[in-house]
């Protein structure tokens, strides 16, 4: 089941398109796709994945935060689906932190993001959620939300000197945390 999808790489035109809203959340085919997408992102160890990254032009993504080698300080929270999301407000404050992406393998960059976002979205059961995310989860939400609108994290970088390859980033981080 985890080999069902291929991750599209930067340059694929679908990554630069605005995804279509999900019309029928309860559709059996859509629900089956959600199950497969969840298995896929868990197998890949990603913090999340947006449907356009696997060739599905629909406004849905998964948030799946957990500590791992790429994000050792990520909070642990159960994976969940975000369908037809809106960001209803953003904090005035922003922070830069390192981001990577399954669609841009091997690249890391310091990306400015709002420290908090208030959001509204549907769950896979069709329930409407209105909530606020802060810190790391707000960052991941904004990253995945961008994918639904044809934006990748490199589009948000302030300075190209704040972009590096994953291997060098790992080396720098290891040196810093000794």
Q: Can you tag this structure with a few keywords?
A:
5-stranded antiparallel sheet, 8 strands
Structure description:
With 178 residues, this protein is of the alpha+beta class. It contains 3 helices and 8 strands, in the order αβββββββαβα. The strands form 2 sheets. It has a 5-stranded antiparallel beta sheet. A 3-stranded antiparallel beta sheet has the order 4-5-8. Strand 4 and strand 5 form a beta hairpin. The longest helix is centred in the first third of the chain and has 17 residues. The protein is globular, with a radius of gyration of 16 Å. 28% of the residues are buried. The mean pLDDT is 92.
Give a brief description.
The protein is 23% helix and 28% strand. It contains 3 helices and 8 strands.
Task: Give the SSE layout.
Elements: H1 28-44, E1 48-50, E2 60-63, E3 80-90, E4 94-99, E5 107-114, E6 116-122, E7 128-134, H2 135-147, E8 163-165, H3 166-176
Antiparallel strand pairs: 1-2, 2-3, 3-6, 4-5, 5-8, 6-7
